[in-house]
Design brief:
With about 190 residues, this protein is an alpha/beta fold. About 35% of the residues lie in helices and about 15% in strands. The chain has one domain: Lysozyme-like (3-Layer(aba) Sandwich). It has helices at about 40-50, 105, 110-130, 140, 150-160, 175-190; strands spanning about 15, 30-35, 65, 70, 80, 90-95, 150. It has a five-stranded mixed sheet. Helix 3 (about 110-130) packs across helix 6. The chain is globular and about 45 Å long. The protein starts with 15 loop residues before the first strand and ends with a helix. The structure holds zinc ion.
Amino acid sequence: MGAETDNFPFIKARWFTPFGEGRRAVRLIVIHTMETPERDGIAEDIANDFATRPPDKKASAHLCIDNKKIIQSVKDNDVAFAAPGANSDGIHLELSGRAKQTGAEWADAYSTAVLENAANAAAQYCLKYEIPVKRLSNAELGDKKAKGIVGHVQVSEVFKLSTHTDPGQSFPWDRFLARVDVLRTERMKKLGLI
Ligand SMILES: [Zn+2]
């Protein structure tokens, strides 16, 4: 069993499925964009939105992440309403930003700060659930066995249960995964695991 994550500030989502007894088997970290403007405080605003969603707009995710904060909305062991097909075995990270962002927009100061916070969170989940720092192909996602990191768009393509295309074609996967890897190693050293 891997290391626990930090205790992130918690604003409980209205809609999720309690897992119940035992530890949920998590094999996926799923990256989303919130489709919101780049500004301070958006992670908390989205968490508050998840806390008050009406029954016809059920949605939630484990973490809401912006340039300054990481807010938890669904506990790790519970199942979020985030991406059908990858809910029961996924940890879902909502990043401030939009799927239509260009590479240059992902490289601006705001998105760089968001990506750093998201990489930090993803590194912690890679350790907790022994998930390799690796983006899965659609075939690997579909085989229901491989562990790794994917975008919501891949869940849409493989399971065909939603049409969302986040985090978008220009999401900087290589840069993001490189930071997850560095932060994972730093955390392992800090925890005395290596
Ligand atoms: Zn999404």
